[in-house]
Structures are given as C-alpha cells and as structure tokens.
Amino acid sequence: MQFYYTVPILLGAMVVLQGGLNRHLGSNFGLISAVMINASILFLTSALFYGILRWNPEIFPEILRPRPAQSSLPTWWYFIPGFCGFCIVLGLPWSIDTIGAGRTFVLLISAQILTGFLWDFSVNNINPSLVKLLGGVLAIAGSILVVLG
Fold first, then answer.
1. Which of 33, 47, 55, 132 shows the greatest Cβ crowding within 10 Å of its Cβ?
2. Quick one: CA torsion of 140, 141, 145, 147, rounded to 10 degrees?
3. Is the pLDDT score of 83 beyond 80?
4. Whole-model pTM above 0.85?
C-alpha cells in the first residue's frame, strides 16, 4: 500500500520535468511543436500499453483493463480530459517561461489542493476533516508567501 503513495510523488516530479523540458523544446522548435511531439509520444505509448493490456489483462490491476463503456456522462464530456491535458502541456512551459518554475508549481499545487477538496466533496462525497482543511489552508498561505515574496 505504501507504494501507492509514491505514485503522486513521482508524478509531481514528472510534471516539473515535463514542463521544464517542454520549455526548452519550445525555445528550440516552438511551443506548439513541443505539444505535438508530446502528443505523438503520448499516443504511441498509450497504443502500445493498450495492446499489452488487451493481450495480458491479468497482469494489471482491474482499473487499468479495457472494458465496455458504461458511463452515464454526455459524450462531449469525454473530450474534457484530453483538452485539459493539452492545456497542461501547453500552459506549463509558457508559465515557467514567464513567471519561473518555482512560482508556477507552487500555484499549480495550490490550485490542485483546492480543486481536490472540491472534487472530493462534490463528486466523491468525502468531507475533509478540520485538520486536512487546515493543512490545505496552510499550503495555500505558504504558496502566497512564495509568489509574493
């Protein structure tokens, strides 16, 4: 179970690495070219992983396995995650270039904390404890100090 706590930590490091490297790619080739390179590699990696999952589903957790659609969401909602990914891949290097990596990621994390609490409350019906809310407020207050300081 402790492994699962390392996943967000690794992903957090990857977000910084991706944004920083995309900034450099964007400086050399143009930011939209960096987005296309990312999208192409994402597509190829996803297609390969999908193929592996189709032929060997038993070696992966249930949540990763392909299955028939069972969603009650309107079809147009399926485009939102991809659009968010595009905005992240385009927006992070742009933000790093304008306000710096430190400020970009402090603000990003603060927005994720706030959005995470709202998501848990409204979608997952999870009420954050007073201690968690206080921790979120302290993290956001700390980010304000970083940005203004």
1. 132
2. 30
3. yes
4. no
